[in-house]
Amino acid sequence: MTETTAPAASALFEHVATRDEAIAHFRGRLAVEVDVSDVAAALGEPGPGFVLVDTRSDESWAQGHVPGALHLPRRRIEDLAPELIPTGTPVVVYCWGPGCNGATRAALEFALLGYPVKEMIGGFEYWVREGFAFDSADGLAQLPADALTNVAPDGFGAASTPGTRGELLTGDAIASGITCAC
Which residues form a coiled coil (predicted)? Predict the structure, then answer.
């Protein structure tokens, strides 16, 4: 008979949350965060039940934004949100990407105004990197999914849309995008 022993505890687990603490923490994060794949799926449904808000600058909005998003820079939320979004309407906010806390600041503004709010983690950067279409000054566009953020139908490292990896796709060449299998 083979005897097994538990591996030695890593220094990473010198301080670890209890089961209840971990459950509360991760449940709390899911209450205030949503990923781009889930937002894309919800936007594809009739009546998604929330308003998607791009909180970036005018210049960033012009470079590209999620189709159907409302442009409301963070510094203008307090003044304009009550005029543009009925109180109590669920809101999902995004900024540039994970290296920016603009969406977190915007989510706080909406929460202070009483809106149910979630932050789209990854922001516009991951929307594009996961291969979803976006609006730009040139119209609807799409880049192939980045194999480091989403596995393409042909496997890791393969382009998920027609064309050469890195080529900007427009018009009829835009694919539906792939979603996270998590």
Answer: none
- Specify if 71 maps to a domain: yes
- Enter the tokens of residue 25: 């923490």
Please indicate, yes or no, if residue 135 is contained in any of the structural domains: yes
Range of the domain at 166: 33-173
Question: What is the Cα–Cα distance from 139 to 17, expressed in whole angstroms?
Answer: 48
d(CA 22, CA 78): 34
Single-letter code of the amino acid located at 133 = A
> Residue 21: how many CB atoms within 10 A of its CB?
10
Instruction: With respect to residue 12, please indicate whether it lies within any of the assigned structural domains.
Output: no
Is the CB of residue 106 less than 8 Å from the CB of residue 81? no
| Chain centroid to CA 70 | 15
Residue 134 within any structural domain of the chain? yes
Q: How many domains does the chain have?
A: 1
Read off the CATH number of the domain in which 113 is found: 3.40.250.10
- pTM over cut 0.85: no
- Classified as helix, coil or strand, 142 is strand
With a CB cutoff of 8 Å and minimum separation 6, the contacts of 79 are none
